[in-house]
Amino acid sequence: MNEKFVKTLLFLIIIGLLQLLVGPHITGDFKQLRQLKKYLKMPMDVLIFGDSSNWYTAKKDTDKRSISRMLRDHLSGSTVRSITHAAYHPEVYAAFCEYIVRQKKHPRFIIIPINLRSFSPEWDKEPHYQFEKEKIILEGGLRLAFYHPFHVLKYKFNAISRKEYFNTPVFNGNKEIGKIKQMHGIKSQFILKYMYLLTPKHRKIKALVNIARLLSRHNITAFFYFTPIDYRAGERHLPGQFTGRLKENITFIASMLKNTGYNCHLLDLSLDLKSRYFAWQTTGSVNEHLNQEGRQYAAEKLAETLKGLL
Fold it and tell me: What is the pTM of this model?
């Protein structure tokens, strides 16, 4: 028997055994997938995805409900479920949508938040925010079969190292102003997280377009919304620049979604709230976390729009 064939056969046998041993453990600790499987067993009107801006609370909040929970309370006559995790982004949402359309039952509406910070190098290139394991599990098939044994062997699936991440260039428009490792002050954070320029080649733009295409083809209504941003604080640090750049990127994303020709709804809350509705000031790290009034506002606006569609 050919030696090369024997080695290949042994390798495949080993992979199969490793998959049997560790497969249930790898997929079993994926909490959000367990939740989704449970939701898909019963009728569901609305499924809302989210990152930490969906559920983060300020210290002074007496109402600790997440945006998705508030939305569920506003739409008491409909079944509303949520899948959230810190740092989730369009690529992860796209992987979940790919999984959903392969199942027998689907929600009527899927809400996808568009957090502009997720397109920035700070989030897009962060090794811990790649979620390669989760995307592979949701995809299933051959990649998942090979993931199990490589996981046992401690193979690192993230393509970006910490060193590469910190040396990623940061741009204000087309002008490079430094590296991620140099972005420390509040002004630098606003530049890092929001002052980039988008192109159709950005992988998260491609993910959003894919979501619109995928859901439309399976008769699921896609509902995108831009999460609120503390634009007034940004404008204080970058007067005459910050709001203009936000509008430029928002217009670009909206046009990319509209130009697909697929049926989807878009709600823009990005410039709706003043600084007092945000909770990031106590931490010193610029983000989209809202206090209870901010979360309530977002939930109310989502509910108002959805009531006309459900």
Answer: 0.89
